[in-house]
Amino acid sequence: MPGALAAWFWGLVAGSALVLGAAIAWVLDVPPRIVAAVMAFGSGVLISALSFDLMQEAFNVGGFGATALGFLIGAALYTAANVALSRAGGMHRKRSGKQQQRAADGAGVAIAVGALLDGVPEAIVIGVSLLGGAGVNAVAVAAVFLSNVPEGLSSAAGMRKAGRSARYVFGVWGGIALASAFSALLGYVAFAGLEPKHIAAVNALAAGAILAMLADTMIPEAFETAHEYAGLITVAGFLAAFALTKLGGP
Predict the structure, then answer these.
(1) What SS3 class is residue 103?
(2) CA 218/CA 39 separation, integer angstroms
(3) Please, are residues 39 and 229 in contact by the beta-carbon 8 Å criterion?
(4) If you count Cβ atoms within 10 Å of the first and of the last residue's Cβ in the chain, which end, N or C, has fewer?
(5) Burial of 82 (0-12, 13-18, 19+ CB in 10 A)
(6) Measured between alpha carbons, how far is 201 from 85 in angstroms, rounded to an integer?
(7) What is the DSSP letter of 134?
(8) Which is nearest to 78 in space by CA: 202, 201, 210?
(9) For residue range 44-92, what is the model confidence (pLDDT) as tens digits?
(10) DSSP state of 133
(11) Residue 107, SS3?
């Protein structure tokens, strides 16, 4: 499979988990504590993946300076974009409760754009992982997929309680899944030909954006409902991704 097509395909596979999570939330009345639990688990998965895969690889190739700079820039860029979207009404895009009912009338676009903002760094990492010629990073795909299921589940549950239609919910998440595929393709095409140290900086930038997203959205949602169990469940997700990293690595 050509590299560009492979990037698009694996980005779509990872993004399709959002639709899967949304479908579960739409068909089943999932208890809020279960939604919070899977959100905590997904947070742990991503924290482990960015720690032992993205950041470690970036450090090994690019050294501490490039890694630290990319990490901070990624977090700053995500935070700035997230602040703007929150003020536009997208702050509750991952909430599983009734918070979305209190959003402004024009918040639908902000919610969709915010969901795209959350998924783009993850998808770009998948595309960049193909540039080495050794095939896709299966651990990265698995980690993103596992974290996207609770993300789609939590947000779709909130949208359903807010009275959103099935067309709206699946239109949003189907569109984000396709956007994830094209983001992975963009990551592959845009960064092809770069030196390894520059690719390492891109990985670190994506890691910073992902960690900022977790701290701003997924972890607060998990803790608000799961309370004292959120930490333990997050650790379980971290361990699951850590096992994937070690079993899938050399």
Answers:
(1) coil
(2) 6
(3) no
(4) C
(5) buried
(6) 26
(7) S
(8) 210
(9) 888 888 887 788 888 888 888 888 999 999 999 888 887 887 776 655 5
(10) S
(11) helix
